[in-house]
């Protein structure tokens, strides 16, 4: 058992906030005429350069699911010189690599052809399962169909993509749903071996959403869920919690071993009300050493689960154990 907790240092790139889904708790989505619905390349480059200058190793590309299904999005995309959003993402990812940052893409459900294109430029990818239950919170959200999300996670495994998934606690599911969701994730990993971490994320209500008055999950519920995750998931899958949404000390005592990405540059655009903690202060508060990793976990570096395109950067950033070469300070 490791005697430290891991994290990565990232820069968060909200490439587009257009989304085909209409989740009851989402504060990230923007309408097509909003000025921040699509980041232009100059803005992306500025963020990536800030991340590189701040010693980040991960470029976290996050965006709404299948934005080209949103009326008017393709027109916005053409105005910045692209006919395909995936082509735009590929270009931005290659800029990140050139600047010394490893891309990690949270893309929602994608067609297999797009997933294969992105594999070459990503150190890892992710999709929150959220839950296997069919919930009212996901009405009018076709991409939140559990079977569709499970299929996508399985496909990523067949393509040997190091993967992040997780469950969202407090959106209308119950404990049996959480247990079933964790069992599904565990089964997928046993078959494909690609799930490097599972996030146990607590729901945080957002103003002006249908769930703005919904209760947040209690500390007891989070403790119980983290404990269940550690019991249900295979031992080589990390249990991750978000240190900007809940103090992680007691969750670490119940099995959490990773704190995800902590950005010295950008806010958490999904939960903008929750500031990132300072990594050094966080290490002091939890009383456990922090060890910095890359967006691809050490075991997948050792197994060679990455493309030739990002190999030189991984060789430059990773130490002999697969963690970041430069020690966390």
From TrEMBL:
Coiled coil: none annotated. Binds 1 [4Fe-4S] cluster. The cluster is coordinated with 3 cysteines and an exchangeable S-adenosyl-L-methionine. PROSITE patterns: RADICAL_SAM (PS51918). Residues 5-244 form the Radical SAM core domain. One of its GO terms (molecular function) is 7,8-didemethyl-8-hydroxy-5-deazariboflavin synthase activity. InterPro entries: Aldolase_TIM (IPR013785), CofG_family (IPR019939), Elp3/MiaA/NifB-like_rSAM (IPR006638), F420 (IPR034405), rSAM (IPR007197), rSAM_sf (IPR058240). CDD domains: Radical_SAM (cd01335). Pathway: Cofactor biosynthesis; coenzyme F0 biosynthesis. Gene3D superfamilies: Aldolase class I. It comes from the Archaea. Catalyzes the radical-mediated synthesis of 7,8-didemethyl-8-hydroxy-5-deazariboflavin (FO) from 5-amino-5-(4-hydroxybenzyl)-6-(D-ribitylimino)-5,6-dihydrouracil. The FO synthase complex consists of two subunits, CofG and CofH. This is 7,8-didemethyl-8-hydroxy-5-deazariboflavin synthase. The gene is cofG.
């Amino acid at each position: 058992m490791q005697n430290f907790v891991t994290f990565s240092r990232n820069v968060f790139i909200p490439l587009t906030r257009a989304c085909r889904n209409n989740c009851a708790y989402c504060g990230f989505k923007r309408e097509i005429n909003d000025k921040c619905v699509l980041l232009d390349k100059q803005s992306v480059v500025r963020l990536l350069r800030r991340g590189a200058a701040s010693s980040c190793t991960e470029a976290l590309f996050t965006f709404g699911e299948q934005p080209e299904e949103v009326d008017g999005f393709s027109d916005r995309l053409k105005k910045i010189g692209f006919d395909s959003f995936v082509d735009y993402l590929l270009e931005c990812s290659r800029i990140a690599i050139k600047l010394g940052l490893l891309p990690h893409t949270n893309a929602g459900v994608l067609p297999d052809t797009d997933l294969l294109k992105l594999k070459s430029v990503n150190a890892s990818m992710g999709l929150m399962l959220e839950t296997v239950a069919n919930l009212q919170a996901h009405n009018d959200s076709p991409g939140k169909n559990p079977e569709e999300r499970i299929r996508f996670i399985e496909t990523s495994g067949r393509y040997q993509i190091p993967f992040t998934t997780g469950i969202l606690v407090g959106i209308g599911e119950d404990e049996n749903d959480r247990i079933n969701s964790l069992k599904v994730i565990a089964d997928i990993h046993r078959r494909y071996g690609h799930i490097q971490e599972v996030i146990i994320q607590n729901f945080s209500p957002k103003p002006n959403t249908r769930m703005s008055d919904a209760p947040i999950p209690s500390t007891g519920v989070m403790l119980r869920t983290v404990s269940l995750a550690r019991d249900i998931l295979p031992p080589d899958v990390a249990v991750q919690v978000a240190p900007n949404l809940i103090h992680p000390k007691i969750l670490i005592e119940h099995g959490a071993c990773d704190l995800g990405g902590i950005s010295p540059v950008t806010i958490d655009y999904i939960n903008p009300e929750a500031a990132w903690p300072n990594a050094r202060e966080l290490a002091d508060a939890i009383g456990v050493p922090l060890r910095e990793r890359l967006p691809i976990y050490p075991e997948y570096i050792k197994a060679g689960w990455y493309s030739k395109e990002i190999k030189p950067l991984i060789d430059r950033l990773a130490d002999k154990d697969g963690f970041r070469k430069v020690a966390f300070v």
